[in-house]
Design goal:
It is a single chain. By secondary structure, this protein is α/β, with parallel strands linked by helices. It is built from 10 helices and 8 strands. An 8-stranded mixed β-sheet has the order 7-5-6-4-1-2-3-8, with helices on both faces. Helix 2 links the parallel strand 2 and strand 3. The two termini are 40 Å apart.
Length: 335
Amino acid sequence: MSNANNRTASSMDIVVPLFNEEQALPKFHTQLTQVIATLSYETRILYVDDGSSDGTPALLRKLAGEDPRVTFIELSRNFGHQPALTAGLDHADADIVIMMDGDGQHPPQLIPEMIGQFNAGYDIVLTQRSNDAELSLLKRKNSLLFYSFINLIGHTRIIPGAADFRLLSRRVVDALRQMPEYHRFLRGMVSWVGFGTVILPYTAAVRLAGKPKYSLGKMMKLAMDAIFSFSLLPLQIGLVLGFLFFVLAGLEVVYVLHCLLQGKRELLVPGWSSLMFMILMAGGLLMTLVGLIGIYVGYIFQEVKRRPVYVIQTAQTKSRTLRTSPSVEPQPRSK
């Protein structure tokens, strides 16, 4: 934990990714500004429109014209939740940065308590859902299973039920901006950088409007990014299974020698079924391992192309000057 006596925070950025939130945004903005009015920080609300196809962009322009605290970034297309959050972090320059969704499930009323923990000396204030009004029992069980699995195979502990609703100090944001990987899982990245961390439980509210944007496909992609970005265990499975096959082969040699030495050659009648079983097992093992290696190679291929995590179409700022994103600038290649 950092020393609370050295805190000199005077500014705060609130990063809010949006995708087709035209109906929920007015209510959310009202709730958020009511909380901000009780705080003494110079506050900027940084909305990131992730390629919305409804009236969200027009509404953002309207809010920016009415509220001097509102700034926004429009991405050129829908890049996804994690890249949208990354765009906001890359352009946040305040002493405190808060990340939250704009659908109303992340309660703005928790912000003063998060700031209180920051003032107590914590660089990272994470939130943990104590319930989720929109998740079925099956989805909650799947979520628990996922976090248990990723914590079992990875070296970075990720808190079960953790949300992308968190407070970060300036130095944590700077550390995250030094991590330009293409496949992003911010919950794992925030845990990886370290720093003093505290967890605040919260009760997730019902969405203000609209429907959840995380489809099954997007959830699977996020899970794959988490597993293959924070663990090498799938590659190590081949070593374990290979060693097991060597042990089985050794046992087979011992059995054959025993039958020969004991004069029980009739027990060594070749069996077609057992041979096919071993061939299929070995073939399945090899194809599985080649597939896992292929996934890692694919991730490496996408990284070395050095494409930006997101592309900005337009950006409007007022109180502070947006910094150029390191994810957008071409980076020097090693020779």
